[in-house]
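Retro notes (design track)

What went well: tokenization of the new backbones is finally stable.
What didn't: we kept losing track of which sequence belonged to which structure.
Fix going forward: every design gets posted as structure first, then sequence, in one message. First example under the new rule, 71 residues:
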């Protein structure tokens, strides 16, 4: 797995804890921010970083994008 900074690790763990582990179980940034108790803007920036590192996947939807852990 890519080297993750502390906030990336926190977001990854939160995603696993709420079950965002497949495309069918994707979660929004709001869901993830609530779980890890961090500001949504910080979580959004972290999600972008994790997508670039290819450890999570972003799925564009009509309202909010969904995210899930790869692998």
């Amino acid at each position: 797995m890519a080297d993750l900074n502390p906030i990336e690790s926190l977001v990854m763990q939160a995603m696993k804890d709420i079950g965002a582990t497949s495309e069918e179980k994707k979660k929004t940034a709001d869901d993830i921010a609530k779980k890890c108790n961090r500001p949504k803007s910080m979580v959004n920036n972290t999600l972008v970083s994790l997508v670039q590192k290819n450890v999570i996947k972003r799925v564009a939807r009509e309202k909010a994008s969904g995210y899930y852990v790869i692998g």
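Added context from the reviewer: The helical segments are 6-17, 29-36, 40-52.
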